[in-house]
């Protein structure tokens, strides 16, 4: 609970951005997987700070160090322990937020819940935690190489990529720093984020994720429907405010005769409003979903806030924060999706004795 | 897993719509709660079929029968067993769907996953299951009477209730059969559903839920954030395609300086884009979220579909189905919310030794 | 938790001996198992009261009624709901124990933990609950017909069956009411229990269980070792005070050179002090273990005890209680073992993607 | 599962004896505990190798390094990550066991289950793992300082400490290297272990554990009885073959009139055959139990065994192994008991909303 994700393929994590290291334990990874460590590091590099001008300029190499569960490069079935040493937790001055609660952060709620709060760099609430998930997801991806998971930026502020995903070339996702597989839209997004950054402000966005080549039959009714598991995973990411799959919120305005996905003889469907999942179980069609991210709460503008005694104080964000988290959120969305998928493949396998 | 919901306050359910009974076990309910059985039955009545002209005309009394865990009307701390006898599972002819897969139902996915399928009335995939959840939620509500949970219909098709929830009078929700606390909008919705029904079609909609008087500190970071738990719960409901809380998908288009909720001296906030949850933990403000429902897949119109051998066949929905599930979904949304809340109150309590 | 057993093949139960029914939900049973309902009832008959002169003379048919999860006699993969109606909960007078705590029962601890106690027939603490487990175990056995599970009475009081299990004929277990596969020892046990009963007293005993034809590789290190799961299961049975497997407590007095099980070329071992499990994982040899049962606490003799106000009062057991639970515990031990086995077969399967 | 222990206070571990480090994540530890790091290290020192002449002479400092979850020396409620660097995993020659299965070790079962095996130092099956548990237990102890947990050596081979625990002085446990609070018996044990060691052999033993000052009401019926949780925990320790609590196996030979614990007016009992637990729930009396350890399988004597191809080969244990694990098992037993206790205090608290 709390710091554990998954049922059979699980990850349990720890770490604050300003402690010595973050890390975790991957428990339940099948034995016999020959790991490609470069591929794992590459996923971390997609998430790491400082990678482009539209993300935070903090520098952190995010090198993962495996401590157990792998022998001669191959998983043994034992739990996999890993850590990522924090190299950027220099004794910066955090005294200005020690006794203050930043608006729309978790400072206030953590203080109320736990009494004792690690205020440095957001403590456990820092999105630095998601580097751990990327490690777990990178291992998960290698356990299910046949499944293709592609996430990309589909909105930044009011700039929307309207093209249906079927018409996109996913190989372009990594070709620009917005991670939008449409160069024109990507340029608009990059420019807009640049502007927002100049204002000391931040902006939200939307990530779309497409999962292809999924076997039929994954997902556990009634309370572990595949989309419910995916939804919970995505809603765990910092700043996420919404999740929809298939027709999503638009589907709510449709009629049944429009929305029904008519079958082809081979069990595939002519349309895919269902989003690849029916009754909580994958039907072999593409799974696709959208994840909404709010704007980062730290703005480099003066704001009113309160201190722990309820006094109104002036506060201004310091440090190097992301003007828009969406480009760096892409590998995180994929990582969580990969862990959900491998978990459900294992669950499905277990049911077929 | 699968048929179990919750961590400490759990419900594990069973039942097909055409078997002898549905039911479940509530495990972990605190001892000493004097149950109001009429209130429980009233919740079931809000969900039951046949209650109005805009829902299915099937008749089912949905009387809950408690079998254990209650002594002299008071919970004992033991598991609470209950069942609801199916009175409407007459030997209707289902041979027409025995070997056919209805479009956008779970017939195909269940057949592929399990091999052996109960085709009568949808078997385990029937939304009849949600009556079990309403029982669990009704008990949960009584464990936390101080918390106010109100769900209502906010959209049917393209008819949207735009009024901010703060300006609505929740006591009007039950005053009309659309369960929309704005009589004018309700009338529009009722008319529209009536039309759709005449066409043998169905339509989707949106439910908004508001949870008030929530203590500060509920929710478990990192992977059991309060909104992630609520989201997973809502995504478990049949036909749900999306979940958003607080600013939701609209928040993705905002800037940080707009979106930040500025504190009042007492820790409350001037705005509530956060939706009552920050860092996954309740902050004492109202929690509110939206749930998108697709249109019911069973339409009384001829459609192409396939049989188990992949032959294209004609099919036409039979029986008495809901033209729009949203009015009957209201108590289900509330029930799940109540179970999530009591579970998190218990989890929070456990952490404070 | 609490009323749930198992990881992937789970049973969640409810029921008090004097309520309307006991029952439960089997969640995770694989689809496609054609159930032999007579075999399930036969297991219940082995456990039921009134079956012989050395067990309680209470009469209870213990007829199981399945409510869901089975279609045309075959499991569907959906949760299986069942109940056993209580026919013997007549409005007996329990006022004498309402405010008293029987020695070595759970009256006092339940009262302290829950405040509100169902004092009729022991409420939730009644071993009647184990009938639910027998249902779960009987279904589990049918999921893994290749595995042979035989439990038998190996001690009653100081009468011990010393013969190594390899020299016993398990087909004799059901040939006598003591369920001891050695007629001479069985006669001694039956006579002794008869005597004890005449004195209004009770006596403890030991059950040995042997599991044969187990595949190599079952069990989950580190904290779900196969024997740890079996041990926890057995320690859940009312009145159990100890569990040992393989060499058990005697092994603690041995030296390594005596205790080591030397391999045969095919991976089997010449001796089996390991009890079929090494490092928590089955090695293909017979699994065997012993379970110690204390004497039933209800004696038909006058005893001092206290009431809820701490006054010393005289009490004398009433009703029809077992002079020795061991003969009726045999099917319970087997049932739990079967559920542990099927659960671990599923877990093992999941790991091999 | 597998590498996770506990329900609300959990530890998830990793590590092989010859990898870079072992470690784990403590998830669910309450916030606000001011940790005494010396006390934690002292517990590790009680378990560490090389501490006396009757244990393995391997040298390993076992210094724990905390990486997260603690701020200014106080727990924050976040997950606590820790590791213990392996300093003694020098590139020793393990080629002799690479393709051989040591008798009564887990080499064969791990090979069969996982295919790919870390053969160095036993890999994940090494009892080095238990150092992680000692860390978890040491933190747990500090969360519940009021509860007194004392384990000690009660048997080595056939040398038994027969004195009832009530007559022992627990302050003597650490006064000798056998960890037996009776100097005369301790001397006998030490001599015997010395002899056994000279023979290149090993010997088993028994640990008794006494838990005092336990509040009434801990434990979760039906399947998480306090003693069942303790039993499962103890059966997780390498080499454990049996667990009994209260009267244990001896209780099986007693009559009910002997075995019943008669109440004192204050709810305490005159005798304590129940072992402090009735119906799975603590009754406030001392909890006591015994744990049987088999002799270590590695003997420095030539033995027949097989290689992976089923050939009979000669093998002789190398390295520095424990002639008797019992003295070093004492802190491990205590650590697991402490984690079970704190977990159940949290569970009990959760139930009392």
UniProtKB/TrEMBL annotation, chains A, B, C, D:
Superkingdom field: Bacteria
Gene3D superfamilies from the UniProt entry: Chorismate synthase AroC (3.60.150.10)
Amino-acid positions noted as binding NADP(+) in the UniProt annotation, renumbered to this chain: 47, 53
GO molecular function, one term: chorismate synthase activity
Pathway info: Metabolic intermediate biosynthesis; chorismate biosynthesis; chorismate from D-erythrose 4-phosphate and phosphoenolpyruvate: step 7/7
PANTHER family: CHORISMATE SYNTHASE
Record protein name field: Chorismate synthase
Organism, as annotated: Wenyingzhuangia heitensis
């Amino acid at each position: 609970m709390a710091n554990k994700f998954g049922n059979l393929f699980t990850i349990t994590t720890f770490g604050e951005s300003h402690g010595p290291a973050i890390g975790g334990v991957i428990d339940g990874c099948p034995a016999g997987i020959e790991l490609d460590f470069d591929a794992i590091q590459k996923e971390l590099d997609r998430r790491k700070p400082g990678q482009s001008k539209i993300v935070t300029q903090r520098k952190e190499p995010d090198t993962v160090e495996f401590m157990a569960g792998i022998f001669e490069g191959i998983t043994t079935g034992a739990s996999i322990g890993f850590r990522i040493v924090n190299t950027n937790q220099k004794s910066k001055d955090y005294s200005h937020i020690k006794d203050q609660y930043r608006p729309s952060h978790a400072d206030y709620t953590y203080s109320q819940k736990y009494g004792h709060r690690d205020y440095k760099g957001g403590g456990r609430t820092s999105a630095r935690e998601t580097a751990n998930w990327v490690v777990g997801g990178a291992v998960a991806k290698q356990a299910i190489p046949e499944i293709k998971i592609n996430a990309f930026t589909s909105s930044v502020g009011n700039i929307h990529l309207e093209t249906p995903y079927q018409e996109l070339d996913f190989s372009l996702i990594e070709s620009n720093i917005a991670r939008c597989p449409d160069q024109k839209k990507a340029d608009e997004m990059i420019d807009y984020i640049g502007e927002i950054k100049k204002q000391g402000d931040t902006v939200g966005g939307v990530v779309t994720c497409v999962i292809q080549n999924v076997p039929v039959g994954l997902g556990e009714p009634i309370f572990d429907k595949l989309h419910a598991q995916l939804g919970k995973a995505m809603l765990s990411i910092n700043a996420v405010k919404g999740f929809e799959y298939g027709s999503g919120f638009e589907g709510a305005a449709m009629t049944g005769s429009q929305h029904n996905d008519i079958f082809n003889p081979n069990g595939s469907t002519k349309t895919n409003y269902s989003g690849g999942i029916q009754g909580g179980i994958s039907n072999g069609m593409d799974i696709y979903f959208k994840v909404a991210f709010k704007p980062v709460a730290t703005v480099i503008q003066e704001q009113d806030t309160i201190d722990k005694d309820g006094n109104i104080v002036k506060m201004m964000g310091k440090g190097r924060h992301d003007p828009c988290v969406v480009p760096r959120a892409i590998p995180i969305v994929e990582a969580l999706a990969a862990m959900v998928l491998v978990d459900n493949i294992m669950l499905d396998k277990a049911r077929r004795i």
